[in-house]
Amino acid sequence: MQVKNSTFLVTGGASGLGQGTVRRLARAGANVVIADLNTAAGQAMVDELGADKVVFQSTDVTSAESAQAAVDLAVQRYGGLQGLVNCAGILGASRVLGKEGPHDLALFRRVIEVNLIGTFNMIRLAATAMAQGQPNEEGERGVIVCTASVAAEEGQIGQAAYSASKGGVASMTLPIARELGKHGIRIVSIAPGVFETAMMQAAPTNVRDSLAAQIPFPSRYGRPDEFAQLVQQIAENTYFNGTMIRLDGAIRMGAK
Ligand SMILES: NC(=O)c1ccc[n+]([C@@H]2O[C@H](COP(=O)([O-])OP(=O)(O)OC[C@H]3O[C@@H](n4cnc5c(N)ncnc54)[C@H](O)[C@@H]3O)[C@@H](O)[C@H]2O)c1
């Protein structure tokens, strides 16, 4: 799919990996709808990149109505939707047996709700809009990129909820690709290693240092634009479909 003049909806587009994706797609000539809870940061992206190609919609990915409003805005404003990039997510680290008692069940539910159910909510609504569009010369109507994590495969102590949510994202990628293929819609998940974003900056220094020391090469955190570059490549290369791609400097996270 050609990025230029296609319309992408980016959840979590006000910060971190989503923000990097919005910048790259907009600079490549795409129309972008930023769907995020953070209105001030989302609006700042519109101011930075220009209101003709970028629009912000205050969105909670866990809400059916809120997600539908973001999809509707993309269709009304730009005449259709060709891309969805799911970057909205939360961490919610906790031990199963913590110092203050067992893992809070509400926290576990919340992480699944945002990272897994929120991602699925966006997929079902965006795919509905994509399926109504005109196919390109390859028969393609849309592309969906989800953000899993290397924690889907090697979650650390304290990541039961997060790993479960990202494992769910990884596992649903193939069945969705199989189903949506007949509509000309592809879906790929990216499993980032550790990237320099607000989410990682919020982690304790000992956790950050320990993770950085586990990256063979390049021995640094990933940059949001490196994630965005892969999103663009997935969009442009029609043969990417139904899989999870690690983007991680060869990190294999240890137990802690
Ligand atoms: N940073 C990393 O090292 C890393 C590694 C692996 C996976 N990831 C995943 O990448 C994605 C992006 O993470 P990031 O590091 O850019 O984090 P971030 O905290 O910088 O950005 C996340 C964005 O999601 C938004 N958001 C949170 N809940 C939302 C909701 N219910 N509805 C709409 N928006 C919501 C936040 O407002 C924020 O703007 C997440 O899914 C995260 O789990 C990040």
TrEMBL record:
Residues 6-193 form the Ketoreductase domain. GO terms for molecular function: oxidoreductase activity. Its EC number is 1.1.1.-. It is an enzyme of class 1 (oxidoreductase). Keywords: Oxidoreductase. It holds the Pfam family adh_short. InterPro entries: KR_dom (IPR057326), NAD(P)-bd_dom_sf (IPR036291), Sc_DH/Rdtase_CS (IPR020904), SDR_fam (IPR002347). Coiled coil: none annotated. Belongs to the short-chain dehydrogenases/reductases (SDR) family. This is 2,5-dichloro-2,5-cyclohexadiene-1,4-diol dehydrogenase. It comes from Anatilimnocola aggregata. The gene is linC_2.
